[in-house]
Amino acid sequence: MAEENEKKEQVIIPEKLPARTDFVRWYNRVIELAEIVDRRYDVKGTFVWMPYGLKLMKNIVKKWDRLFQENGIEETYFPLFVPLKYAQKNDKWFEGFKKNLYAAVPFISEQGEEKLIIRPTGEPAMYPIFRLWIRDGRLPIKIYQTVSSFRLEGRTTHTMIRDREITFWYEIHTAHKTKEEAYEEMQRHIKINEHIWKNILNIPPIAVEKPKYELFPGAESAVEFYIILPDGRLLENGSVNNLGQAYAKKFDLSYVDKDGNKHYCWQVCTGNGARYLVAAIALHGDERGLVVPPSIAPIQAIIIPIYTKHEKEAIEAHASEIKEMLLKRGINACVDNRALTAGEKFYIWDIKGVPIRIEIGRKELASKEYAVFRRDEKKRYSVKQNELASFIKKVLQKEMPDYLYKKVEQFYKEKIKYFTSTEEALRWIKKGGVAKVHWCESEACYEELVSLEKAIEPSGSLLYERSKGKCIICGKETERLTLVGRGY
Ligand SMILES: [Zn+2]
After folding, report:
1. Cα(242) to centroid of ligand 1, in Å?
2. Could you tell me the distance, in angstroms and rounded to a whole number, from the CA of residue 445 to the centre of ligand 1?
């Protein structure tokens, strides 16, 4: 690029990213270079959201806010402090969570103060209030909150994947009069999740049903979503739980019908958070950095003026006109006027995954035809000024989401292979693949699958795929299939 720079604001040294198949190293580096987070905060399992990363995350939050509310699920906020006695109401829940809980203790402690814990998940704070709301005649209850939750993670923490402060965690909790109503609600939540996966993140969803013995005690059923990371590991990514009456009985969530009979409520809960963003980063990213799905991109089109000193004014003015024109057409455009070389700017915006880059230099100023770079395809197109906005809109709304979706679909196709022999399945898993196998869903065969190799897990039964076959462990006839791979 022919150009001359006056004062340089900073020096950018382009850095080659680790290979994506070396996923943990690639991921840790790219989230810092793209300024998603700063991982240097001095408390294990916590991190700082950087402005660009926060905008990106909040764009996802805005999407789910709208979706939930369109589905009649209203936003609430419950306190961070939870009385210990609430947490102990469901003894099985408490036993399971005890080792992960943080206590809230005043710095200067007074005698006789009530013991408090810090919210690890919503149930113990919400359900005692649900009891009162039901008495007030508020059934059905359909609410959610998006908050930080806190869990002491003994295992290795991974930014946005396994944190001690789980930020932007949404949890939906509902309560219903009948089992049928709760079932319908659960189906609605599965649809909402699939919509987020397909239309917002541009990723084909993998949905599985959890086996009965893996559920919360007393729960009816659960559907979990998974992604396959570039290194072939399976990562759980959100769940929808039909809780049955398990919690309702512990927290006395009940109503009295017109004949005076008492009935316990039926409940559904759903949760996920920053792991959605992890999925978009992991599955769309490449050797240059992130590729952000257009519908959640903080900047959709970045304009890079390229000039020598005496052209600066004219080209910057033109870049600004183009930006205004695009903004008017509903495209979130921005001009990068910093005193950096064009090459440095290309490098930075590639890492940040901005969907479209428009280059404007002397030639473009004269011809009114621009080089438009698509981040997903890594291809340049030459587009005339009067077609610029409609070209970009078409790419952002249709072509790029389709391209990203199909790319992940193709990746999944290559990663998932069907096996009827455990030795061959294991060989494939060791090579970084995911094995699809028939299984009978029994606990014994589940345990056997888990014990085949360290750190592998069956994900549950694929929700939508069925075919006739024999359980890979016991040989029993079955229609259910599961994905087996290394977990995270
Ligand atoms: Zn079996």
Report:
1. 25
2. 5
> Phi, psi at residue 475, to the nearest 5°?
85, 0
Write down the residue that tokens 């009978």 correspond to: 440
How far, in Å, from the CA of 210 to the mean position of ligand 1? 15
Tens digit of each residue's pLDDT (9 = 90 or more) over 268-306: 999 999 999 999 999 999 999 999 999 999 999 999 999
**What DSSP line would sit under 109-165, residue for residue?**
PPTTPPPEEE-SSSHHHHHHHHHHHHHTT-PSEEEEEEEEEE----SPPBTTTB-SE
Q: Which domain holds residue 327?
A: 294-412
Token digits for 425? 């399945």
CA of 350 to the centre of ligand 1 (A): 48
Question: What stretch of H or E contains 404?
Answer: helix 400-415
Is residue 257 in some structural domain? yes
What pTM does this model have? 0.95
Same domain, 340 and 442: no
421 CA from centroid of ligand 1 (Å): 13
One domain, residues 162 and 56:
yes
Number of domains comprising the chain: 3
269 and 298 belong to one structural domain: no
> Strand pairing of 206-209 and 221-228?
antiparallel
Instruction: Looking at the structure, tell me whether residues 457 and 331 fall in a common domain.
Output: no
Same domain, 218 and 120: yes
What is the 411 CA–ligand 1 centroid distance (Å)?
A: 29
pLDDT in tens, 32-52: 999 999 999 999 999 999 999
Distance CA 139, CA 134 (A): 6
